[in-house]
Amino acid sequence: xDSYYILVFNNxxxxxxxxxxxxxxxxxxxxxxxxSYITKSCGISLRVDENGFSSIKELINEEKxxxxxxxxxxxxxxxxxxx
Length: 83
What we know:
Helix content is 30%, strand content 37%. It has 83 residues and is of the alpha+beta class. It has one domain (3-81): Alpha-Beta Plaits, CATH 3.30.70. Strands 2-3-1-4-5 form a five-stranded antiparallel β-sheet, covered by helices on one side. Helix 1 (12-25) crosses helix 2 (53-63). It starts with a strand and ends with a strand.
């Protein structure tokens, strides 16, 4: 099963801040274009696998990163999740 999380941001600055924090904290994350069928927002999102999701939640809270929404992809479905 193909399952991961997509973090969507209000702007590129927040996306870059999140990616930088992931690099420093050694959280495996990948920048990706925001799928347009999820939301029309910042064009850059962060993809995080299930193993890194708890770490990214901590990072978001500690660094006060503004995340617009989070989606979990399972197979071909996207479901919005709450922090």
